[in-house]
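Batch manifest line 467
LIGAND: S-adenosylmethionine
JOB: complex structure
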Amino acid sequence: MNKRPTLSLKTAAPAAAPKLRASHARALKPAPQSAFKTGLKADSLALSLLGAAQAVAQVRTGTALPQALATVFAKHDALPQARGAMQDIAYRCMRQLGQSETLIGLLAPKAPEPLVGALLACALALITAPDANAPYEEFTVVDQTVTAADAHPDTARAKGMVNAVLRRFLRERRELLETALQQPLAKWNYPQWWIDAARAAWPQQWQQILAAGDGAPPLTLRVNPRRGTVEAYLARLAEAGIEADRIGPWAVRLAKPVGVALIPGFADGLVSVQDAGAQLAAPLLDVADGMRVLDACAAPGGKTCHILELADAAVTALDADAKRLQRVGENLERLGLAATLLAAEAQSADWWDGQPFDRILADVPCTASGIVRRHPDIRWLRRKGDALQLATLSAKILDNLWQMLRPNGKLLFVTCSLWPQESEAQAAAFALRNGATRLDAPGQLLPAGGPEQDHDGLFYALFEKNA
Ligand SMILES: C[S@@+](CC[C@H](N)C(=O)[O-])C[C@H]1O[C@@H](n2cnc3c(N)ncnc32)[C@H](O)[C@@H]1O
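JOB STATUS: finished
ARTIFACT:
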């Protein structure tokens, strides 16, 4: 009979090593070979697994997944197909990192080196995917993971362990999963503080919220009403053999995500990629032709462009990040729209010409806890105190922008957070400090992934300035 594994997360230090002087200790441990190029075939699953694992290991040291993947793609001169596979594996891995790391704690004799752990986590994410979702045969995954381990100096010595761990998982899968899933970390795939925060903020809905964040997001488009109707665009998709449905006034959801290059009319500005929940911002602002509008945290410009698709307004798109602001320019150009772009901080007034705005959109920086299905790395990168720190900055931004609004003007406050201190509590405190009148707006939209309601978790509060 198999011995039932006991649950011991690998947080304990490995068995005490003899004490070495610092100079000796460095010499004994080889430095990670981050610049090493493998001899793995460009189109092999082994290379994709290794690339994904390198990206996951970077996330574990604090790098956002898109940046980590960009580094890995460059390092391997990865072909488009390999990039797609590395990205897919890394995103899957992020969505079930809690389960995979708990399993590794049960299976590995001692805590593995970071890249070995990440490689095992990527392999386990593929092996434990539900059948309908499993992209590779499990024995292929094991074989290719061992090949990947063998091909890199930071993992080669652990090749035997990698093989043993994955084969044991295949043999004892049921018991191992049963044991692992008793841990909230493994069951929900979020750090414990995040689970506690969700439960405290949303005592009725926290489980549904956490589950929605573990799903893969849909690809939702916003049809540009200046270039055609939703009906006409749905017909164009049908002609191209792309299945889609309408989930909002301008929102079209594709049944299966595709790369932007394959979206009909994308390059010509017929559509943009935007979550259905985010498509509520522009209509809530109620912009009329000729108004002066400030989009205070604009990049990459999804909401800026939507405002301009709905009205001929004089829009100033401001963002603190000059590089991200370039993307606003690219999106405007693709859609045939124009705005004034300003790289500046929304909590400062030194860029303002003193002319009040009719409408202000404040889509402030936040923890992004409502969009984890799109950015599954966020949960592993954030720290418990981040919400408070970001809320302090966004309070300054809101108070500063308020003085730039004309009497009877409207300010729309938006976050993509689920944490009340960044959203509802912030809105209530802002209204009180500034004597702002609160108008009708959705408040907190919880993330939903159903057939009709399919959107991220966003927060909307609309204010009017008394004359
Ligand atoms: C949630 S994103 C905005 C998304 C955008 N509104 C859209 O719909 O595409 C927040 C933006 O705020 C910017 N940001 C962060 N701190 C800022 C600050 N102090 N002032 C202005 N922008 C800031 C970030 O660079 C980021 O682009």
